[in-house]
């Protein structure tokens, strides 16, 4: 046999020799990991749990001062988030063991529940920060129906288009009743004063339509319509116009409308490469509004530095890649569309949140998925990711020789 080709460092170098066989072994290992039948399942589970763990630690750090002011204990808000995470993880594990057809069968029920809750919050909901989007439960707990509507829209739209798959070359079947129902959900959420979550609902529908094969000219038209809607809504509500003006020039109103963005920028800027240390943030002592909810990323950047911030971005990238790879590789139409819907939801919400924090987009008040404080956002996202894990398990079992797929 021919001896393996070998490259060595120059004389005096301490570097080891690298052979062609070493490179082939590394490529083979990567291929085995990525082509493993359950690789997507492990990617989804791993990235989800890492983001959740990081979120729990950072919610404790970011909320400690606020928690002391309100409750007299630095652990109250963190303890609640831990409770929400426990409920969500149990729901995720249950969802990951369900047959994928179960989600399709419950699609219409989920949509009906979402619409009822969105109407109910307009009647009996509680206003927080000018938005009437919370329903009181018991004690200190409340929830936001718009978060439930995101999961309902994913499942319902995927089931709808999967059933009409052979008819989607006709505009009437592609757009009806998907666009009117999505518009209804968005109008109900906008009636609460919540522009951010209405935007995310629209992006979820766009993601599902894209994977369903909608022509690009449709998205151009929808984008133009959305732009006109943003202008009209901004002009109709003075606080939205002020927020938009503060986004364009936060330094011009640094003590009022631009305060949150400026303080978030300071927090990110002072973190450097490695941060000032876990728990050592200065901005969370009252300077940065919503430090444990919408603006938790600046606290991460301040305490864990650019490295911590990039880790968060990388984990969201892993979730998005896994979701869309699952959509692309599945032969089941419902799985394709639902995976695309969940991927669009998580990435769109992360981009809207991070873009607002960095000043690239106007601040809309949506939380950072899996990281920000709040059970209303956390639990539905974990349930949606559990659904994707169920899809990945089914695909993994189908890929094993002689193993029948779940039904």
Class by alpha and beta content: mainly alpha
Poorly predicted spans: 1-16
Strand content: under 5%
- SSE string, helices as H and strands as E: EEHHHHHEEEHHHHHHHHHH
The amount of helix comes to: 55-70%
Mean pLDDT across all residues, rounded? 85
Count all strands and give the number.
5
Number of separate helices: 15
Strand order of the largest sheet: 3-4-5
From the alpha carbons, calculate the radius of gyration and give it in angstroms: 23 Å
Tell me about the largest β-sheet.
3 strands, antiparallel
**End-to-end CA span:** 50 Å
- What is the overall silhouette? globular
What does this structure look like?
The longest helix is centred in the last third of the chain and has 34 residues. The strands form two sheets. The protein has a three-stranded antiparallel sheet, with helices on one face. It contains 15 helices and five strands. By secondary structure, the protein is mostly helical.
Relevant terms:
single chain; 407 residues; mainly alpha; three-stranded antiparallel sheet; 4% strand
């Amino acid at each position: 046999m021919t001896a393996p080709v070998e490259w060595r460092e120059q004389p005096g170098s301490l570097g080891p020799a690298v052979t062609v066989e070493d490179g082939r072994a590394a490529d083979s290992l990567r291929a085995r990991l990525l082509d493993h039948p359950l690789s997507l399942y492990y990617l989804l589970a791993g990235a989800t749990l890492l983001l959740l763990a990081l979120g729990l630690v950072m919610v404790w750090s970011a909320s400690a001062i606020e928690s002391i002011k309100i409750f007299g204990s630095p652990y109250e808000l963190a303890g609640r988030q831990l409770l929400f995470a426990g409920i969500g993880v149990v729901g995720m594990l249950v969802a990951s063991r369900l047959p994928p057809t179960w989600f399709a069968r419950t699609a219409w029920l989920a949509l009906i529940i979402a619409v009822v809750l969105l109407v109910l919050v307009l009647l009996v909901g509680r206003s927080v920060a000018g938005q009437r989007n919370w329903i009181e439960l018991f004690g200190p707990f409340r929830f936001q129906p718009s978060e439930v509507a995101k999961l309902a829209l994913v499942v319902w739209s995927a089931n709808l288009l999967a059933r009409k798959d052979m008819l989607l070359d006709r505009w009437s079947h592609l757009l009806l009743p998907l666009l009117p129902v999505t518009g209804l959900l968005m109008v109900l959420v906008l009636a609460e004063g919540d522009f951010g979550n209405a935007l995310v609902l629209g992006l979820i529908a766009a993601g599902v339509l894209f994977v369903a094969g909608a022509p690009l000219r449709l998205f151009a038209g929808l984008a133009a319509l959305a732009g006109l809607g943003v202008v009209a809504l901004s002009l109709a509500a003075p606080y939205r116009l002020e927020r938009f003006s503060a986004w364009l020039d936060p330094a011009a109103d640094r003590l009022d409308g631009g305060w949150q963005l400026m303080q978030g920028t300071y927090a990110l800027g002072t973190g450097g490469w490695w941060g000032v240390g876990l728990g050592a943030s200065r901005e969370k002592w009252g300077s940065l509004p919503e430090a444990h909810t919408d603006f938790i990323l600046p606290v991460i950047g301040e305490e864990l530095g650019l490295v911590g911030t990039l880790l968060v971005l990388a984990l969201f990238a892993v979730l998005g890649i896994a979701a869309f790879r699952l959509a692309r590789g599945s032969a089941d139409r419902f799985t394709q569309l639902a995976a695309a819907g969940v991927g669009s939801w998580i990435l769109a919400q992360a981009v809207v949140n991070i873009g607002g924090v960095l000043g690239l987009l106007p601040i809309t008040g949506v939380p950072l998925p899996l990281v920000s404080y709040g059970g209303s956002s956390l639990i539905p996202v974990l349930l949606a990711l559990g659904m994707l894990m169920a899809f990945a398990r089914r695909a993994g079992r189908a890929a094993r020789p002689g193993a029948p797929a779940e039904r």
